[in-house]
C-alpha cells in the first residue's frame, strides 16, 4: 500500500469518526424533544385563571368632607360693641328666642344699655369663637347653633367631575373616628355655581342610615359612585395587558392552550374591569402568568 492510499484512508477514517460523534451528540436531544412532545405539560406555563361572569361594577371618586349639622346658623349681634356677658357654653341646648349673650355698645364718655343677642333657631351651641371683653361688630358671628338630630356631609368636588354628579347619587363614607366601618349616603344638595377661586363645586350628602355615634365636626373620606353598571361581564383588572395601544387577554380552551384575544374595556375600579367586547360569559381568562404567554402556548392551571 503506497503512502497516498494510507493518507486517503486516514482522512476517511477521521471523517467517519467525526460524523459518528455528531450523530451520538444529537440522539439525546431528539429523544428529549420526543419526550417533551409526548409529555406536553412539562413545558407548559403555570397560570391562574378566572371565569368571565356577570357582575356589578362601580367607578368612584375619592374626596374628603366634614360632618355638619343640617340646620346650622350663625348668630350675629344687632349692634357693635364689647361682649359683656355670655349665657351659654358650647354643647348647651338653646331655643329660638333665648338670650345667649349681651353686647355693651357704650363708648368713652357715653353709657348705653346692654343689647341682648337672641338665638334665631333652636339647637345645640356648636361654636363660640369670642370671649368676654372682645370688641365685636354686627358682622361678628358670636355663636353657631345647629340641629344635631339631623346631620349632613359637606364636600367640594373638582370641576372635571361636575357633569357626572346628580341628586340621589350614592356614596360610601369612612370616618376616622369610627374605623373599620362604612356608612351609606346620597347626594342631597348640589350648589348651582362653581367656586371661581378653587374651581370646585360644593355638594352635600345625607346619611341613609343615621347612627348616633356620628358627630358634627368629624372628618369623612367619601367614595362617590359616579358610574355603576349591573349584570355586565367583568374580570380582574390585572388580567388585561396593554400591547402597543391595544388591550389583550389570554383565553384558555379545553386543551389547555392559551389564545390571544383583543378586548374593548368599559368602566373599571381598583379590582375589576368591564369587558365591552372580545369575551363571552364563561370564558376562562388567565389572571396570573399571562405576561409570559404567546398565542398557542400550553398552560398548566393552578389554584
Describe the structure.
- With 303 residues, the chain is mainly beta.
- The chain contains one helix and 21 strands.
- It has one helix at residues 3-39; strands at residues 45-51, 53-69, 72-75, 81-86, 93-94, 99-104, 115-118, 123-127, 135-136, 143-146, 151-158, 170-175, 178-190, 200-207, 219-236, 241-243, 246-252, 258-268, 272-277, 284-288, 299-301.
- The strands form four sheets. A six-stranded antiparallel β-barrel has the order 2-11-14-13-12-15. A four-stranded antiparallel β-sheet has the order 3-10-8-5, with no helix packed on it. Strands 7-6-4-9 form a four-stranded antiparallel β-sheet, with no helix packed on it.
- The longest helix is centred in the first third of the chain and has 37 residues, at 3-39.
- The protein starts with a helix and ends with a strand.
Spans of at least 5 consecutive residues with low confidence: 27-41
Name the assembly state: single chain
Distance between the termini: 75 Å
Largest sheet geometry = 6 strands, antiparallel, barrel
The structural class is mainly beta
How many extended strands?
Answer: 21
Give the mean pLDDT: 86
CATH class of the largest domain: Mainly Beta
Elements, N to C (H/E): HEEEEEEEEEEEEEEEEEEEEE
Instruction: Classify the beta-strand content into a percent band.
Output: over 45%
CATH fold naming of the largest domain: Elongation Factor Tu (Ef-tu), domain 3
- Computed CA radius of gyration, to the nearest angstrom: 38 Å
The count of domains is: 3
Principal-axis shape: elongated
Number of helices: 1
Going across the biggest sheet, name each strand in turn: 2-11-14-13-12-15
The percent of residues in helical segments reads 10-25%
CATH homologous superfamily designation of the largest domain: Efflux pump adaptor protein, beta barrel domain
